[in-house]
Amino acid sequence: MVKQKYSEIALQDKETNESSCCGATSSCCGEGTYNIMSDDYSVLQGYQSEADLGLGCGLPTNHAQIRQGDTVVDLGSGAGNDCFVARHETGPNGKVIGIDFTEAMVAKARNNAEKLGFNNVEFRQGDIEKIPMTSGVADVVVSNCVLNLVPDKTAVFKEILRVLKPGGHFSISDVVLVGELPEKMKSVAELYAGCVSGAIQKDDYLDIIAKTGFADVSIQKEKQIIIPDEILSEYLTHDELNRMKTSGPGIFSITVFAKKTDSCTPGAGCC
Questions:
Q1: pLDDT tens across 51-64, in order?
Q2: Is the Cβ–Cβ distance between 161 and 261 less than 8 Å?
Q3: In this predicted model, what pLDDT tens digit does every residue of 132-170 receive, in sequence order?
Q4: Structural domain total, the chain
Q5: Where are the beta strands (DSSP E) in 111-265?
Q6: Runs of H (alpha helix) within 130-260
Q7: Is residue 202 part of a domain?
Q8: For residue 62, how many other CB atoms are within 10 A of its CB?
Q9: Residue 6's pLDDT is what?
Q10: Does 264 reside within a domain?
């Protein structure tokens, strides 16, 4: 389903994606609806508008502490947006590798890179639960609003640990939940912003990262995702809407940072 959906998105322009709820075709989106997830990439150096499909929920590349000459891997690279920003940071001596599940996205990203003449940006088709890369090659891993779509998040973080060099790190933006959303609210959220599908509790998300073996886990940025009342009121009664606002649960976008330790441990892929 994910592959089919994002194959369709690859053929749409940014305006269509932004007005259709995280790229999903949905009847809940009225005229003038905007993407409640995405941040403005146009302020970042290296930004290429042709590669921005408006599908992210943060600016992980902006927080990723990329240095000149680094090898950067972007999981769920789409049309190449984060890869091209990362290329600016890593410079001509660095390398950027984008991994995407969808053939149409990889083709679009490769076409963008070719038009821009970028010979140190590469795109590979593959499942990020089994990243098509050898171990210990990446200085930095980034990802933007992708891991929530993956069934086995533990497998992805194990793979990130494997492909990172000792001392390497990641910066990942993703959607998480805080508290149990009412069933009606969850349904509306998934309709209005498809990227909420597959999101797990924030504490569980951070726990997976820690249990995988990463160190220095921290949240670099956090914002609540607010679904407008005019949308919610189509599905919830006035009382349900008020209860939801005062009960505390919510949907959040977080950008998480963590490091792979310098020491090598069995199973980390560096021994």
A1: 787 778 899 999 99
A2: no
A3: 999 999 999 999 989 988 889 999 999 999 999 999 999
A4: 1
A5: 121-125, 138-144, 164-178, 215-224, 250-259
A6: 153-163, 183-192, 202-212, 229-232, 238-247
A7: yes
A8: 22
A9: 59
A10: no
Please tell me the distance from the alpha carbon of residue 244 to that of residue 240, in angstroms, as a whole number. Answer: 6
CATH number at residue 218: 3.40.50.150
What's the one-letter identity of residue 192? Answer: Y
User: Is a pLDDT exceeding 60 seen at residue 239?
Assistant: yes
Residues in the chain: 271
Range of the domain at 228: 2-259
Whether 191 is in a domain gets the answer: yes
In a domain, 203, yes or no: yes
Q: How many angstroms separate the CA atoms of 158 and 211, rounded?
A: 10
Residues sharing a CB contact under 8 Å with residue 21, sequence separation 6 or more, in sequence order: 28, 29, 33, 35, 191, 192, 193, 194
| Distance (Å, whole) CA 106 – CA 113 | 11
Would you put residue 246 in left (φ > 0), alpha (ψ -120 to 50) or beta? alpha
Task: Give whichever of 5-19, 182-196, 216-230 has the largest mean pLDDT.
Answer: 216-230
* DSSP assignment letter at 40: -
pLDDT digits (tens, 9 = 90+) for 163-211: 999 999 999 999 998 987 777 666 666 655 455 767 899 999 999 999 9
CA distances 69 to 18, 27, 80, 140, 180, Å, are 33, 46, 19, 11, 43
Amino acid identity, position 123: F
